[in-house]
Amino acid sequence: MASFLFLPLLSLALFLSLTSAARNLQPRMHVTAPIPLIQQVCKATRFPDTCQATLAGLVTDPNTTPIQAIQSAIQVSTDGVHTAQKMVKAILDSSAGNQHRTTAANNCLDDLGNSRYRISLATDNLSRGSIKNSRASMSAALLYQYECWSGLKYGNDTQMVNETMSFLDSLVGKSSNALSMMYSYDNFGNDTKFWAQPKTERDGFWERVEGRGSGQGVRGGVPSNLTADVTVCKEKTEKCYRTVQRAVNAAPDNPGEKKFVIRIKAGVYDEIVRVPLEKRNVVFLGDGIGKTVITGSLNVGLPGISTYNSATVGVLGDGFMASGLTIQNTAGPDVHQAVAFRSDSDLSVIENCEFLGNQDTLYAHGNRQFYKSCNIQGNVDFIFGNSAAVFQDCNILIRPRQLNPEIGGSSTVTAHGRTDPAQSTGFVFQNCLINGTEEFMKLNQNNPEVHKSYLGRPWKEYSRTVFINCTMEALLSPDGWMTWSEDFALSTLFYGEFGNSGAGSDFSKRVPFSSKIPSEHVNTYSVQNFIQGNEWIST
Ligand SMILES: *[C@@H]1O[C@H](CO)[C@@H](O)[C@H](O)[C@H]1NC(C)=O
Ligand SMILES: *[C@@H]1O[C@H](CO)[C@@H](O)[C@H](O)[C@H]1NC(C)=O
Ligand SMILES: *[C@@H]1O[C@H](CO)[C@@H](O)[C@H](O)[C@H]1NC(C)=O
Ligand SMILES: *[C@@H]1O[C@H](CO)[C@@H](O)[C@H](O)[C@H]1NC(C)=O
Ligand SMILES: *[C@@H]1O[C@H](CO)[C@@H](O)[C@H](O)[C@H]1NC(C)=O
Ligand SMILES: *[C@@H]1O[C@H](CO)[C@@H](O)[C@H](O)[C@H]1NC(C)=O
Ligand SMILES: *[C@@H]1O[C@H](CO)[C@@H](O)[C@H](O)[C@H]1NC(C)=O
Description:
Blueprint: H1 2-29, H2 37-42, H3 48-55, H4 66-93, H5 99-127, H6 131-152, H7 159-188, E1 230-232, H8 244-249, E2 260-264, E3 267-270, E4 273-275, E5 282-286, E6 292-296, E7 313-315, E8 321-329, E9 341-343, E10 348-356, E11 362-364, E12 368-372, E13 375-378, E14 383-385, E15 388-392, E16 395-398, E17 411-416, E18 426-430, E19 433-436, H9 438-446, E20 453-456, E21 464-468, E22 471-472, E23 494-498, E24 514-516, H10 527-531
One 2-acetamido-2-deoxy-beta-D-glucopyranose binds at residues 121, 124-125, 128, 133, 137, 318, 346-347.
């Protein structure tokens, strides 16, 4: 065996030295003619050959600006989504009676619709010079394309699905290319000679940020002067909506900047609530945690229910706000994925809210979200998704697993799902407490070996999560972070810690794939730099 292995290695080494020799020669060969723009911009991407092939017919004018080149790359993605929508529609039309495939195709169509919307925002913001907004939207557009592909796996039993999946796979690559160019533009501006494949903190690269800022930065939240447009209540005598969903339905579609404020009076609302994409700027104002409660129990064990669809409250519309309420999923600890709150709302502010569940409690799915002074409880991967979310002053509590909790098992606070190094997503915990519920702490104290808790594990390859200035109680396992599956993502993820305190914060026994954030780079994760909160969170 050994000699068989040796040969390919040798020829690989030979190949590498030959190609690097060729690379060294290149500048001299091209010394007279400047490298064409298309090659310059494509060197920012992870799939430069695809990039050059797709842009070949589109970027021909030698005076094309870098921004115009990025716009062309985005156009390729738009066209691809359009084709994918037709393909998935055809799958849906041919899948009557097949529940798995029908569910997968319907979810996929939703994903593609969301992707198109985000691409249009990315295009508009790019031409207005707002690269941060543009990149945030394109990060989400890529997420939805990936999810469409990923969801089809559950219905991949026909040639048509198989072909659609290969198409989506190539579309994800093309969109990644557009996003990588945005990354380079964001960091190096118009000077395309500096453009290069996206690097992450794990490569020792910290992205360019505005100023150094001071510590915690933005500390705003839900404005205190909001007044109710409509009310939801339980009292039969009062004039009010009886369900939260009916009040949401009453909100205007595609409104301007004005908030639509729904006061939800104390009571238990047993319903599934959806805030669709066109209902922007909806606000839920409850009477307090534990007083206003929205409760559901959907879970993946039920026919036609995916993790995404299991949410008790699911929000797509941008600018969503909530304060003073509890949202829970009571499916229980034995049923696997059962989401309490899922959000794709860009520029969303959640304050003084409580999220209760077990596995997958809070699905911070996509876009930019700010959580302040919230209580979040669960056990397995209970804060997860591929958004850029900041959690400030939150209480994160681990709950017991299983109906027979003595059996124990490992719990993980987070499972961030970034799939591409150019996505501007990640989870930031600032000034939070990591502890267990009283019930969990009793179990943990009796038998710490079987009730282990971790800060997170990598759901996807470029998972990114940081804890800054947090209090970590002793329940946290000294190694801190867990693997997903063998060595998956361990060399590409970024798990950072800075300024934490408490018995669980000791860094000396941490896994080798976690990092201390250098103090000069902590500012990367401020509310301002990470989610541009200074532009949209009121103080
Ligand atoms: C720019 O992006 C922001 C955040 O996604 C969005 O609210 C806004 O509508 C976008 N602007 C344009 C002109 O599309
Ligand atoms: C799936 O599609 C790929 C690429 O189009 C093709 O090579 C492969 O044979 C297909 N497999 C099945 C089982 O249809
Ligand atoms: C779909 O399933 C077929 C048969 O199991 C498999 O060969 C193919 O790789 C799958 N397609 C994708 C894109 O995963
Ligand atoms: C890049 O050049 C365009 C003009 O082509 C200009 O509008 C833009 O501000 C420049 N970007 C940066 C980051 O300097
Ligand atoms: C961390 O906490 C210290 C002390 O309270 C504060 O001065 C600093 O600004 C905080 N830093 C961050 C990044 O939150
Ligand atoms: C609430 O206060 C903000 C400033 O904090 C102001 O811009 C806004 O107009 C006020 N809204 C109402 C409804 O008074
Ligand atoms: C953590 O939880 C335990 C048990 O409920 C409690 O005694 C302890 O005070 C909590 N720690 C913090 C910092 O609140």
